[in-house]
Amino acid sequence: MTSLLDDIFTSARWIASALNSSGYTADFTPGSLRDVERFMAEHSDHGVAAAGGLLATEVGPRLFALGTYVGETVRRTRAGTWAADGDGPDAEMNIALHLPDGSIIWPVQRVVNRFRNGPEDSIAFYGAALGLTDTPTRPRRRFRMHE
């Protein structure tokens, strides 16, 4: 039997593969959270899965996997440690990510809220609020106009 912490990594990798094979970018970079948001917008509307969409079946496990992907993206970018408490019925919803600055976030809860509430709980904005950016690693060139 696997632990909930093992399930986090397995689920994150599984959903990344599924998203990539469905035309979304899921490479655990901050910019990929925009594609998670696009996926949510295309496959759900305020707590209702789109008919025939990728959330129309197995919504619970898929939201859990999306939450682990979001959390793992944050963990890889900002560092942090996953924490899971027990085996209770709410254990999957309450996995937490402890960040080095002392913050604690609950990415699965955030994804579930995005599903229920719609774009007001945007995953892309969530990443931005956590300080994740997808700016280029090299400075942009500046061009000068010659007179």
Description:
The chain starts with a helix and ends in an 18-residue tail after the last helix. It has 5 helices and 5 strands; from the N terminus they run ααββαβββαα. It has one domain: Up-down Bundle (Four Helix Bundle (Hemerythrin (Met), subunit A)). The C terminus is likely disordered. With 147 residues, it is mainly alpha-helical. α1 packs across α3 and α3 packs across α4. The chain has a 3-stranded antiparallel beta sheet, with no helix packed on it.
Which key features would you list for this structure?
Four Helix Bundle (Hemerythrin (Met), subunit A), 147 residues, single chain, 5 helices, disordered C terminus, mainly alpha
Overall radius of gyration: 17 Å
> Helix share of residues?
40-55%
SSE topology string: HHEEHEEEHH
Q: Percent of residues in beta strands?
A: 5-15%
CATH architecture: Up-down Bundle
What's the overall geometry? globular
Count of discrete structural domains? 1
Strand order of the largest sheet: 3-4-5
Structural class: mainly alpha
N/C terminus separation: 71 Å
Distinct helical segment count? 5
The parts where pLDDT drops under 50 for at least 5 residues are 135-147
Largest beta sheet, briefly? 3 strands, antiparallel
Number of strands: 5
Task: Furnish the topology, listing elements before pairings.
Elements: H1 4-21, H2 32-43, E1 44-45, E2 48-49, H3 59-78, E3 81-83, E4 96-98, E5 104-105, H4 107-117, H5 123-129
Antiparallel strand pairs: 1-2, 3-4, 4-5
Helix pairs in contact: 1-3, 3-4
